[in-house]
Amino acid sequence: xxxxxxxxxxxxxxxxxxxxxxxxxxxxxxxxxxxxxxxxxxxxxxxxxxxxxxxxxxxxxxxxxxxxxxxxxxxxxxxxxxxxxxxxxxxxxxxxxxxxxxxxxxxxxxxxxxxxxxxxxxxxxxxxxxxxxxxxxxxxxxxxxxxxxxxxxxxxxxxxxxxxxxxxxxxxxxxxxxxxxxxxxxxxxxxxxxxxxxxxxxxxxxxxxxxxxxxxxxxxxxxxxxxxxxxxxxxxxxxxxxxxxxxxxxxxxxxxxxxxxxxxxxxxxxxxxxxxxxxxxxxxxxxxxxxxxxxxxxxxxxxxxxxxxxxxx
Length: 313
Prior knowledge:
The protein is α/β, with parallel strands linked by helices.
């Protein structure tokens, strides 16, 4: 039985992770006195007593938490942005490659991907790895997310009965092109430069769609939608969590909240001979956050990676 500590249990992701352990009998959950949740000495004690500690903290606090580790056997699974592009941390998206999975299995330092970055890298990493596009391709990406991705303050704002009417509509943000996920989107995918990225927050709780459009004549050769679909199917072959749909799977519209409360992801390829849309759909709180964290835990423990996850068809 593994001893698990969640540092930052009261945040959105921490609460979701905590809730997933209610029905598991293969872990012992270490808890902190609420009055001591910011006490470095008490946090250090619990971190070093644990087998695995989840960090559900702001970046600076996550970096501080790692500095408290004295037990070389403790595994850290960090859900913050702080460590996602560091070479000595495993990037927690096992389906990207065998090497990504191996590092999650073996590392004591695992960084859970950002939600938007999960969708983006699920698309762009295979395109570059397969040679379908060059690393210098001028990528544009747009994405829709439920408001739970905005954290406690954002959730409270959206769920306030006296809220601003502007929140009734989708809102484009990251207008300066400085979104915090851009660093990992570029680094993990293998792009030479950061993409143009337009995220949109919407008035529904959970669910996310990330889309990358491509000109086929700008690819390394003029691939068809069928060629691209087959490449993605081969890349994710055998995965129960990342599913590549057949061409024509969606005939009209792709909803962004259909995967709410699920921990899997689906990829679709649509378009025509000249212009392609590749879309990744998942739950920003599932495969985009706590679901991915639990999957990393399962892989690190050497058990079925789907344990405690909600996986659809």
